[in-house]
Specification:
9-stranded mixed sheet; binds glutamine; about 35% helix; 7-stranded parallel sheet; 19 helices; alpha/beta
Length: about 550
């Protein structure tokens, strides 16, 4: 039987509930327990797949093709496990299920209501992963802030579960903010008291209070929070701002969060935390021996959450290379053929980001051309790969009007075109080519050198693809299709020979990079950027040692 931990948030959003939940999960995992995390989001979209990145940050995709909240990315990166469709549930999905059942007549004769029908469906989904028998502990992060109208049914479901389950099988961790008033030079506990009171009014008494704070909490403050929030003083956990999210598990370990949780859940005989790899990763991250500047060319750069997994992948790859990767955000909308050299001249590598629609694509194409011609390491992801194909068509094959039919339906050279299976699709939600697909890699290619194997599987999220009608022309002109889907021949990887590092991938490698398994494409791209930088400085490049962390 699995045990359940619920993580709620109070006072304000953006406190990092996902990171606290993932850190707790990491600590429990490091003590030999089988742990998973799921996120319940109170919004009405069935999933975040149709949301603009400006609204909700990156959309994370799982192996089984679910479009999910970006916190699932943190869960995977921390725990080195795969999540799935079941790990992210929204109000929209809950209502969809209940309404479908109502139409099928499952509640015949009854009025369908929030309590019990919606709360029953929430509870069923909260317990689902626990029922699989695969986990000792299921952590559920509740999106939103306590007091929001939307989150009421979720809090009510937690209340009912707490009431139904033996006391040692279920607990609530509440994350809150302790603001510091500069003028008074004081940390203030009142917002926390109010948010815990709000939660109690909804019937849920938290067992642990995790306090985000910019200053250390004195014992006196901890006692005060404990007294007013009705928990023991050792259940008040200080969560000071950390220099990197990857420090948070160690901070929570120091504070004893995992031990309090294990005691409350009456889990005995747990092992000492095994965090050797994690600490090794942090050591290398904190003491880099070199530095590179990588340009991230995108149109959502104002919001860093839009490229979350890419940024985290660079942190993983930087650590293993003992290299500080400095990301230089370059807005694709403002790049032109005239200013591209000036904008990109200081870089050691260029990553052209995924995206949708025509805004900023000409800037991306100009950036690819610069990287190709200047022998600057280039890495294109999804739309970035498509832009590389268009650039090659226009400037090497000489097809000036080549384009993707996503941006120009009338182009005479539709080198990127809609997949056949996509042509008849009208609905937007969940209808892209989503999730993991196999890819066969050409021997003796750069991709083969990077992956060290012929068969890989990577995650996708796109509608358009390389148009195989033009494949021979591209091959004759020197663009190598070094990865293909074995089932339908779709080109998944393109690369160039006479270039130190030029690779574009139709899939999203950033979705599979974790602390313990940095993605090889990012690892080698950083290595190539280091070599580029060394060449600039005229230093003999070191070979990348094949080491594991
Ligand atoms: N807009 C492109 C497509 O749908 C690329 C998508 C992406 O970059 N994720 O094919």
């Amino acid at each position: 039987m699995a045990k359940f931990i619920f993580v709620t948030g109070g006072v304000t959003s953006s406190l990092g509930k996902g990171i606290i939940a993932a850190s707790l999960a990491k600590l429990l995992q490091s003590r030999g327990l089988k742990v998973t995390i799921q996120k319940f989001d109170p919004y009405i979209n069935v999933d975040p797949g149709t949301l603009n990145p400006y609204e909700h940050g990156e959309c994370f995709v799982t192996d089984d093709g679910a479009e999910t909240d970006l916190d699932l990315g943190h869960y995977e990166r921390f725990l080195n496990i795969n999540t799935s469709q079941a790990n992210n549930v929204t109000t929209g999905r809950i209502y969809q299920t209940v309404i479908n059942k109502e139409r099928e007549g499952e509640y015949l004769g009854k009025t369908v209501q929030v309590i019990p029908h919606i709360t029953d469906e929430i509870k069923r989904r909260m317990l689902l992963l626990g029922d699989s028998g695969k986990y000792d502990i299921v952590i559920t992060e509740l999106g939103g802030t306590v007091g929001d109208i939307e989150s009421l049914p979720f809090v009510e479901a937690v209340r009912q579960l707490q009431w139904e389950m033996p006391e040692e099988d279920c607990m609530v961790v509440h994350l809150t903010l302790i603001p510091y008033l500069k003028a008074a030079k004081e940390l203030k506990t009142k917002p926390t008291q109010h948010s815990v009171r709000l939660l109690s009014q909804e019937g849920v008494q938290p067992n642990v209070i995790v306090c985000r704070t910019e200053h250390p909490l004195s014992d006196e403050i901890k006692r005060k929070i404990a007294l007013f929030c009705n928990v023991k003083p050792n259940a008040v956990i200080e969560a000071m701002d950390a220099s990197t999210i990857y420090e948070v598990p160690l901070k929570m370990l120091e504070e004893g969060l995992d031990v309090i949780v294990l005691k409350k859940l009456q889990i005995n005989g747990y092992a000492a935390p095994e965090l050797t790899k994690w600490r090794g990763f942090l050591d290398k991250l904190n003491y880099p021996k070199s530095r590179v500047k990588i340009g991230l060319i995108g149109k959502y750069i104002e919001l860093q959450d839009a490229y979350k997994s890419i940024l985290e992948s660079f942190i993983h790859a930087g650590s293993i290379n003992q290299c500080k990767v400095q990301i230089v955000n370059v807005h694709s909308e403002y790049i032109t053929a005239d200013n591209v050299a000036e904008k990109l001249k200081d870089l050691d590598g260029l990553l052209v980001a995924p995206g949708f629609g025509s805004r900023g694509v000409e800037g991306k194409i100009a950036a690819v051309q610069y990287a190709r011609e200047q022998q600057l390491p280039f890495f294109g992801i999804c739309l970035g790969m498509q832009m590389a194909v268009i650039e090659y068509a226009r400037n090497v094959l000489g097809w000036k009007d080549a384009h993707s039919t996503e941006m120009d339906t009338a182009t005479p050279y539709p080198v990127i075109a809609l997949m056949d299976e996509q042509k008849k699709i009208r609905k937007k939600g969940g209808t892209m080519r989503l999730g993991a697909y196999d890819c066969d890699i050409k021997e003796n290619s750069l991709a083969f050198n990077i992956y060290g194997q012929e068969k890989i599987s990577e995650r996708h999220r796109h509608r358009w693809e390389f148009n195989n009608k033009f494949l021979t022309d591209f091959e004759n002109a020197g663009l190598i299709p070094s990865g293909k889907n074995p089932a339908n021949g779709l080109v998944e990887i393109v690369e160039l020979k006479d270039h130190p590092f030029f690779i574009g991938v139709q899939y999203h490698p950033e979705l599979k990079s974790t602390v313990e398994n940095p993605h090889p494409l990012f690892v080698h791209f950083v290595q190539a950027a280091k070599e580029f930088s060394d060449r600039k400085l005229n230093i003999k490049p070191e070979k990348l040692e094949k080491e594991t962390i």
